[in-house]
Amino acid sequence: LIPFLYTQMSYATMAQNESGMRTRDRTGSLPLHNAIRFRAPLGSIKLLVKGNPGAVNVADSSGLHPLDLACQFSTVGVVKYLAELSLDHLNACDVNKNYSLHRACRGGNCKVIHHLLETQMSSVPVSERNVDGMLPIHVFCKFVNEQEEDEDTKYTETIWRLLTAYPETVLNW
């Protein structure tokens, strides 16, 4: 509990610094981008958005918006919160044709993948390939193969959901 409170106090202090909230680091990231990369909890993200509401629409030097990063690194709660604030980013692709689902798969973020498939079924690009020719399921399988731990059962359900959403995957493998 104590480390959580210190973290919240740190983000609250940061959010009150207007110039700091608008200052980009060497990667073009704002404090909101970095907090998401470091898996900050929803309360911290809300504090940073309150300190700079426009940050949700700012891309870093890689072209990633906070919602893009949240799909890869954050919880479903953070993704839902940021999607409400910047819905147009949810189904947008980056310069490498990666969509939110690709990014969630890249991070092995099973809960976000499930959320995207369940709530956005009609518009989630399960059949879209990125510039490397990879479907979201390919990106997810690559992530799973790179894991040192044996958590196959954890990933099996996600692979099943991705296959169910786009059964033609097996024909296009």
Explain what this protein looks like in three dimensions.
This protein is mainly α. The protein is 55% helix and 0% strand. It has helices at residues 2-15, 18-21, 31-37, 42-51, 66-73, 76-85, 100-106, 110-119, 136-146, 152-165. α9 (136-146) runs antiparallel to α10. The model has no long low-confidence stretch (mean pLDDT 88).
Detail the topology: elements first, then pairings.
Elements (H helix, E strand, L loop, with lengths): L1 H14 L2 H4 L9 H7 L4 H10 L14 H8 L2 H10 L14 H7 L3 H10 L16 H11 L5 H14 L8
Helix pairs in contact: 1-4, 3-4, 3-5, 5-6, 5-7, 7-8, 7-9, 8-10, 9-10
Task: Give structural attributes.
mainly alpha; 173 residues; single chain
Short description:
By secondary structure, the chain is mainly alpha-helical. It is built from 10 helices and no strands. The mean pLDDT is 88.
Return the string of H and E elements: HHHHHHHHHH
Radius of gyration: 17 Å
Mean pLDDT across every amino acid position: 88
Task: Give the overall shape.
Answer: globular
| Structural class by secondary-structure content | mainly alpha
By DSSP, the count of extended strands is 0
Largest beta-sheet characterization: none
The portion of residues forming beta strands comes to under 5%
Q: Give the proportion of residues in helices.
A: 40-55%
Number of helices: 10
Poorly predicted sequence stretches spanning 5 or more consecutive residues: none
The CA-CA distance between the termini, in Å, is 46 Å
